[in-house]
């Protein structure tokens, strides 16, 4: 499901499950973590296969978590949230600059994975949403913090509380993406021309300024996610 190709200074990581709009299972999340951690390239381009970037968490996995909650335990739901958070942190702290090349929908956890990247580069076909609120969940992979930090409180609350879809140009206007281009790979190659050590140190300095309060926020996210899986178990299993 996670396919990796190295080409000089750029590693391309493809979430390759187009029949499920690149929805992520626990195994895929762990493979993605490995792919962004064990890397010698200066730049990673993270992309989705087919017509979507990533639909977020696999709904079959969510249904299983809901079944566990209905049976009396939310431990697996909290663990799944923490796994997604761990992968997002691995992307954020990778020695490589991670460029999300978003060509098609980024939904829920897919948007959260994109938010963990250093740059989000969209094509005109890209769109973004946090639809979990419409069926009783929310983004629990660090998204409540990163979305607000990226687009500000007003836009973040609008996206998170309404579940509405934001197109590429709207995303550019609010700062959710840096550029709208036909080929995101070109931006990854542009950055790969820069000196590696400088890129790594600059990224680290920027991250230090942004992540001070995230650990506390992520623990709250995991706990609230588990509670909502429990509260909405019947709906999530249907």
TrEMBL record:
Molecular functions (GO terms): catalytic activity
Stored SUPFAM superfamilies: ClpP/crotonase
Annotated Gene3D superfamilies: 2-enoyl-CoA Hydratase, Chain A, domain 1
Pfam families (UniProt xref): ECH_1
InterPro entries according to UniProt: ClpP/crotonase-like_dom_sf (IPR029045), Enoyl-CoA_hyd/isom_CS (IPR018376), Enoyl-CoA_hydra/iso (IPR001753)
PROSITE patterns xref list: ENOYL_COA_HYDRATASE
Taxonomic superkingdom: Archaea
Family: Belongs to the enoyl-CoA hydratase/isomerase family.
Protein known as: Enoyl-CoA hydratase/isomerase family protein
């Amino acid at each position: 499901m996670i396919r990796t190709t190295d080409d000089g200074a750029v590693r391309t990581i493809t979430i390759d499950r187009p029949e499920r709009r690149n929805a992520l299972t626990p195994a895929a999340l762990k493979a993605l973590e490995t792919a962004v951690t064990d890397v010698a390239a200066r730049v990673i381009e993270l992309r989705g296969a087919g017509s979507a970037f990533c639909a977020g968490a696999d709904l079959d996995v969510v249904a299983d978590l809901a079944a566990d909650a209905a049976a009396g335990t939310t431990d697996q739901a909290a663990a799944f949230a923490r796994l997604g958070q761990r992968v997002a942190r691995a992307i954020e702290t990778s020695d490589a600059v991670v460029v999300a090349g978003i060509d098609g929908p980024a939904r829920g956890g897919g948007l959260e994975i994109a938010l963990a990247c250093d740059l989000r580069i969209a094509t005109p076909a890209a769109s973004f949403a946090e639809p979990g609120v419409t069926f009783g969940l929310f983004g629990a992979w660090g998204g409540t913090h990163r979305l607000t930090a990226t687009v500000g409180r007003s836009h973040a609350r609008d996206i998170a509380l309404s579940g509405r879809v934001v197109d590429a140009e709207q995303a550019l206007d609010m700062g959710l993406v840096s550029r709208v281009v036909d080929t995101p790979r070109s931006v990854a190659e542009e950055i790969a021309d820069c000196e590696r050590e400088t890129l790594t140190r600059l990224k680290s300095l920027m991250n230090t300024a942004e992540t001070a309060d995230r650990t506390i926020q992520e623990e709250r996210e995991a706990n609230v996610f588990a509670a909502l899986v429990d509260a909405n178990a019947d709906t999530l299993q249907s």
